[in-house]
Amino acid sequence: MDKKKFKVNSEKSLVEWIGRKVTGAHNGTIEVKEGNFTFENKNLLAGKFVINTRSITILDVEDEETNAQFASHLASDDFFNSDQYPEAVFEITHTEPSDNNLYYVKGDLTIKGITHSIDTTLQIVRTDNVAVLDAKIVIDRTKFNIKFRSANFFANLGDTLIYNNFDLNVHLVAESI
Fold first, then answer.
1. Which residues form a coiled coil (predicted)?
2. Which of 13, 76, 79, 123 has the CA that lies 20 to 30 A from 88?
3. Low pLDDT (below 70) residues in the chain
4. Residue 170 is part of a domain; what is its CATH number?
5. What pLDDT, on the 0 to 100 scale, is given for residue 1?
């Protein structure tokens, strides 16, 4: 069996997020701290990546003071509690190769110390020395005790309601080790 390990290059990797509310949406980025993937006979076998919740940026709010307040709020216990939980982790538990460089993946996502299984599709383009992995992961934030302005927990939110699902668009560049 031909096993090959790849290490995520944090400088070349990025996670983009989109959160939606009744009156629109916000988007930004999160830094990838580290990660690794193992391939066996050129197929994805296992993998894990870690994001730094302290690095969340907001790209669509231009006013510096408002942006700083928003970033501080996302880092607070209302959302990611970044001081206590500076990392979120996705670890692959099962892979199924498909056509066109796609893999159906099941993995454990841990946010705020709470772990839930997530299903997603990964697209992987791989050479001998580099693997580029892209995925869109849709997350129900309420499963990770992120309840702020969720209709599941609060009534009469009107136009202040924030939808429970948010998207992570993951782009990872991993190099062989």
1. none
2. 123
3. 1, 152, 156-157
4. 2.40.128.110
5. 67
Q: What are the structure tokens assigned to 105, written together?
A: 């993946």
Count of Cβ atoms closer than 10 Å to residue 84 Cβ: 10
Cα 2 to Cα 71: distance, rounded to the nearest angstrom: 44
Considering only CA atoms, which of 53, 120, 122, 58 is closest in space to residue 89?
Answer: 53
Task: Residue 120: give the domain boundaries.
Answer: 3-176
Residues 6 or more apart from 64 whose CB is under 8 A from it?
A: none
Q: Is the pTM of this model over 0.85?
A: yes
Residue 74 to residue 67: CA distance in whole angstroms: 11
Q: Which amino acid is at 28?
A: G
Which amino acid is it at 147? K
Count other C-beta atoms under 10 Å from residue 104's C-beta: 13
User: What are 42-84's pLDDT values in tens digits?
Assistant: 899 999 999 999 999 999 999 999 999 999 999 998 899 999 9
CA dist 119 → 47, 135, 152, 168, 174 (Å): 14, 11, 22, 13, 21
CB-based burial, 40-57: b 16+ in 10 Å, e otherwise: eeeebebbbbbbbbbbbb
